[in-house]
Amino acid sequence: TMVEKQGFKHYMLKEIYEQPGVFRAGLASYISENDHLKLGLPKGFVERIERVEIIACGTSWHASLVGKYLLEQIAGVPTSVQYASEYRYSPPPSLSNTLVIGVTQSGETADTLAALELAKLRGDRCLGITNRVESSIGRIADAVIDTQAGIEIGVAATKTFIAQLLMFYILALEFGITKGSLSSERSQELIDGLRQLPAYMERILESQERYIEELSRQFTHTKDFIFLGRGINFPIALEGALKLKEISYIHAEGYPAGEMKHGPIALLDEDVPVVAIATPGSVYEKVLSNSQEAKARDAKLIGVAPLDDPAAHEVFDYILPIPVVDEIFSPILTVIPLQLLAYHVAAHRGLDVDQPRNLAKSVTVE
Ligand code: G6P
């Protein structure tokens, strides 16, 4: 292939490292220096829209769940997310002024294309978010947003996920500003906050990779993992579990931390490590106390958490430290240690990280 590994052992690791640059470039493309949004959506795509339905598969579906959180919490736009393979055969009742967004890195996922075609037939405005504007989704959607992450070779999506998240931040800003549901102070704060993230992402990569590589060794023979998160980091728990499943073949479940007591807690013992995403904000104490419940069942606890909080140190056996930022931005940072964890566990197991068994980069059959 034309894309080189540039000294990285696998494309996936290289792509993980490209994320701060992808984020920076995406910001430069879609927010001008004087803070104007430049998504370039056709007229009527935002103004008259009253609700959003997002359809996607896999990692793109996880990005969409974060997107729902952002569209609802930043812009106040009611949003639903459905797997494309489900939407196809049970679409929600058709309502006017709905924007349907198909999110697909490859632009070729058969279920996502079919679901979007159905939405179009129903008369909805259709937007695509993709890393391949020249792909089939570009033909089906009324407009597309280019995630501009550059070609991704690793089957497990990393930098395209980060790029999809960025598009949702900008789209939520666009909705909030256009519909007047977002104050100009808050929108300025959000734009400034986005611009600070690449430096934090770099710091996480620089400071944690060695540690995570070392920590991962002890999980080479682990059979099950649980990932917990709440609120905006629940989808990141799902994504952390998916990354691990995809490339290490270790069974992993992502769960909303508050639901653990309704089932998964029965799985816990000293052989089932728990990774909890605990970042300061609306659910921080709750996640810490959910983690404490896991600890009481002898589970080994890994926290994606702030470095300097004694409360977190008390609960977690290991901390993958995250700089403290406005909770709304935390997914951009919390996903990185989880990608590294999945990568290093798989690499220690000697697996073909870039080409995991049974998986394809794009699934063009139903
Ligand atoms: C495949 C890939 C996943 C990806 C999913 C959706 O299953 O292995 O990594 O998340 O397809 O792909 P898309 O191109 O639609 O984002």
UniProtKB/TrEMBL annotation:
> Which residue positions are annotated as catalytic?
K361
Name one molecular function that GO assigns to this entry.
carbohydrate derivative binding
Q: Which principal EC class is assigned to this enzyme?
A: transferase
Looking at the record, the residues that make up the SIS domain are 41-181, 211-356
Q: What is the lineage of its organism?
A: Bacteria, Bacillati, Cyanobacteriota, Cyanophyceae, Pseudanabaenales
What binding partners and quaternary form does the record give?
Homodimer.
Give the principal location in a single coarse category.
Answer: cytoplasm
Compartments in which it is found = Cytoplasm
Q: EC no.?
A: 2.6.1.16
Catalysed reaction, written as an equation: D-fructose 6-phosphate + L-glutamine = D-glucosamine 6-phosphate + L-glutamate
Q: What is this protein called?
A: Glutamine--fructose-6-phosphate aminotransferase [isomerizing]
* Known function: Catalyzes the first step in hexosamine metabolism, converting fructose-6P into glucosamine-6P using glutamine as a nitrogen source.
Keyword terms, alphabetized: Aminotransferase, Cytoplasm, Glutamine amidotransferase, Repeat, Transferase
- List GO terms (cellular component aspect): cytosol
Q: Which GO terms describe its biological process?
A: amino sugar biosynthetic process; carbohydrate metabolic process; fructose 6-phosphate metabolic process; protein N-linked glycosylation; UDP-N-acetylglucosamine metabolic process
Q: Does the keyword RNA-binding apply?
A: no
Key word Transferase present = yes
